[in-house]
Structures are given as C-alpha cells and as structure tokens.
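Problem 3 from the worked examples.
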Amino acid sequence: MDSEIRVFDHPAMTKVVASETRMRILREIREQPKSLSQLGRILGISPAAVLYHIRLLEGARLAKVVRSEVINNNLVEKFYKAIAAPYIVGLKVEQVPRGPVPPSRQPTKEMMILDLSGLSHLLGLISLWCPPEREAQLEAQLKQLTEVASREAERAYREILRQTDVRLSPIDRQKVVSSVRPAIPIALFRVVENPESRETLSSIIRLVRRRT
C-alpha cells in the first residue's frame, strides 16, 4: 500500500516542493484533472509557465497525464492529475562541505505542505461548521497553530535527544529533528480522520461550553 506521506530530502526534489505555485497546481489537480490552459486561467499565468511547473512535478512523480483531448480539430490538449500523497514533507538539510574555509551560513529551511482543501469535511466529521467566508481565515489560523506546535515539538525532541545516548552524525541528527515538526500536524489530521478519535472529540465538544 502506498504511503500517505511523501518525504523529500534531496536538494533538487526539495526545490520542487518549495514552490507555492507548484503546490497550488497540485491542489487544483488533486480531485479533477485539468489542462494547461485551465490551470493558466486559474493561476493567472501563461500555459507555457504552467508547463514548466508541470514538468518538474512529473519529474518528482507528483503529477501525471491522465487523458488527452483533441480541440479545434488538430490541437491535442493533455489533462494532468496529482498522484501525490495527502501529506508532502520537504526537508532541506544544510550540507557542510569539507575544507579549511568555513562555508557561509545559510538558514536551514524545513517545509511542510498539507492539503487543507478538505478542512470543511474534517470539521463536519466532528459536528463543527465554519461559514465559507471565514474558511480562509480559519485555515490561516490553523496553520499558525500547527507551526507553533511543530516548533515546540522540535525543541522538546532536541532536548530529549541531547539527554539520550544516541550517536548520530550532525546531518542525520538534523534530519531526525526536522522530521519531528511535520509529524505533529499530520498526527492531528489523522486523529480527526480516525472514527474512534472523532467520537471522542465530539464527546469533548458536547461537554465543553464557552463561558458566558
């Protein structure tokens, strides 16, 4: 069975998933296949620019052609669909080259891409509802909250790792610690998707009321 999580830690592949435009394309073609012209109209960019991003996504095995249609009698238009897992994690681990000259320090960037397009569905599973006009605000606040939880998880794990007798190279240690951050929100989403956990969450919501 294919994993629900795709992890990229090679610099070239991490660059592919670091683009917001490419992530938008993946969200657009997750449910319904779309052509280059359709994606261009949605994203406000040219079909040629869309093709550039699509080719990178194909190279990373995140998108594929699912059908072709002939339009205007002789023009063949291809339709693309995402083949990505629901959770895409990109880890950019700083490579320290050997040599007498210290390298310039570049900040390490960890990226996590979660598809929140099904947020309303998840809320409905635990008997909650958000007005459509507030969904963007809710999504932004949930992202902010998960980022804080992820940073705190990383800090805690660093301290735990420091106090345990685990021998890892600096690069392996950085990969392990960086992997903790995306694990937190992924676990939260899976909790909501789990039927038993949903029932527990629904019971908690029924028990708790806002103080007036």
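Problem 4, a separate protein:
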Amino acid sequence: MAHNNVIASRSRILLIGLRPFLIAATFLMTSCTSGMAEEGFSSPQALLNEIYGHYRNGESINYSSEKVIEKYFASEIAAKMIADNAEAAAVGEVPTLDGDPFLNAQDWEITDLAISIAKSNTPDTTIGYVTFKNFGEAREINLLLQKTAKGWQIADIDYLDQEKLSDLYGIKVHSSW
C-alpha cells in the first residue's frame, strides 16, 4: 500500500512539474491554429462554407466591419468598401452597400442553401454559385473568387437581377466575368 502511495506522489509531482510546459504547448497550438484561420482560406469551398455557414446557423455577418471586409474580400474591392463606409459614417449617411452583400438583402430567413464551385481553367480564379430561398423566394448569387496573397477571397459578386458589387463601387473586373 505504501508503495502505491509513493508512485501516486511521484506521478503528481511529475504532472505538477510538467504543468507549465503543458500550458505553453496548449497556448502555442491555439495560437498557431487561430493564426492559420486569419491568414486566409485554402480553397474556394472553405471560403464559401465559412461565409454561408453563418446563415445556415441563423447568424449574420457584420459585413460593415473592416476586419470582416478584409478577411472575405480581395484588396481592391475591400479598400473601396472600407473607404465608402468611413465616408458615409463621417457625414451620417448610409453607405453605398446598404444590405448584406452575401445575400443581397437587408432582412433574411434563409432555407435551401446550396453552394457549388465551378471548375476553372485558371488556378487563381473561379466562380462560386450560391442558391437559397430568402423568405421562400428563390435567389441565386454568383461570386468571383480569386486566390490572393491572403488565400481565397471574393473579387466580385454578381446578383444576376441587379448590378454587380463592383459596379456599385466603380471597379472594373476582368471582362470574362
């Protein structure tokens, strides 16, 4: 019995001695994992799954946040969106984009969400097709996705029945789009 108590005491001492190392290892693993997510998306599917996963879960995205804009949108359109938001806020106006860019709506109740990615002839651009029902009305949105230094991001959004996101900001996106 005394032998078992000695082993238990030594195990506790060993665990107590390792505690700082275990805490540091856990911190490093968490930091590395969250850093990878902040660097960007490794595929077009991962990008769209994250964005539209929020809506599947009944959550919205703060699309007016500078951090969110820079995370999801390619630099040219992101810069225009951020500048427009700042200018509108400075004069107490509504920004050019006055609805959710991922749904093309101000209010939403999303069902029947489907995402697909086109096969592309180029390694750094493709199109994401998103269909869903908003309050029972069928909707389709096409997203031009571009591989950037940050990973996959949105270069433009085509709302099909309205002008493209790039048109709102006076940006010329390549003609094949």
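Solution to problem 4. Helices lie at 2-39, 44-56, 66-72, 75-90, 165-168. Confidence is low (pLDDT under 50) at residues 6-15, 18-37.
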